[in-house]
């Protein structure tokens, strides 16, 4: 039974209706964060499911205010860290292309660029990858990232710079190889 | 880059508008006369744009079943039942103690025991709340 069906059958209350809104708002950015962090469609889907299950289980205890979304992203980041621990250090990070329809020429070029950038992201150390994805892809401010990643403002600044610099070098070397 | 050039970390923060107004102005003035820093800034900006252009993929359906939903009511009932049991046991012990012959300074001894039991009860409740929070 899906969450929507549960609400429809009136087995759950107001909290869960609010939670449903939370899912609708944050499902996509949480999934994309996890997709770019893990590089795996399957892992990102499983982790997204896990994040909302954890959030649902803790939702009653959580103070619902404007920081709700940072709380949700913190769950996502911690779930990803747990996932890495489960997978072990030997987990190979190669970007998996999500399945899509047929591409025309322009779209192929765009897909190629996406593949190159997404793969380059996976070559970054995880702390840098996290900050780059949170800021440059999802548009979080430095202050928000300190709350999500649990690091200081100075650390966010330096990780973002070194992450971008490393990405630039990876992308340059890959374009030189072609 | 030159000796008076800003730290590249600051350039990156400048790009994001994450500097104080004073520092932002200072770096802006420096950029007007330093082509090396302008080049560095352009490189960082290009990388930032490439990441920002990554498409946002549609997310999977989130499926939470009735079995997976949190047993909130059961959890609270368990907490109350545990607290009441703990309180009942402590009160029983306290009254059994009251009925036993006491030495001198009976009132003071009773007060001490009562406080001790109160403290134990408070600790039990705190422990149960911690367990439930986990």
Question: If you had to describe this structure to a student in words, what would you say it looks like?
Answer:
The complex is a heterodimer of chains A (178) and B (134). Chain A is mainly α and 178 residues long. Chain A is 74% helix and 0% strand. Chain A has two domains: 11-88, Orthogonal Bundle (Rna Polymerase Sigma Factor, Chain: A), CATH 1.10.1740; 105-178, Arc Repressor Mutant, subunit A. Chain A is globular. Helices cover 71% and strands 0% of the residues of chain B. Chain B folds into two domains: 8-52, no CATH class; 72-133. Chain B is mainly alpha-helical and 134 residues long. The interface between A and B is large, with 49 and 34 residues.
Write the layout of secondary structure elements.
The complex is a heterodimer of chains A (178) and B (134).
Chain A: H1 3-8, H2 14-38, H3 41-58, H4 68-87, H5 105-122, H6 126-137, H7 142-149, H8 153-177
Helix pairs in contact in A: 2-3, 2-4, 3-4, 4-7, 5-8, 6-8, 7-8
Chain B: H1 8-15, H2 21-33, H3 35-52, H4 72-99, H5 106-133
Q: How many separate structural domains of chain A?
A: 2
Low-confidence stretches of chain A: 6-11
| Count of spatially separate domains of chain B | 2
SSE order of chain A: HHHHHHHH
Q: CATH topology of the largest domain in chain A, anyone?
A: Rna Polymerase Sigma Factor, Chain: A
| Largest sheet data of chain A | none
- Our estimate of the beta-strand percent of chain A is under 5%
Helix and strand element order of chain B: HHHHH
Q: What percentage of the residues of chain B does DSSP assign to strands (E)?
A: under 5%
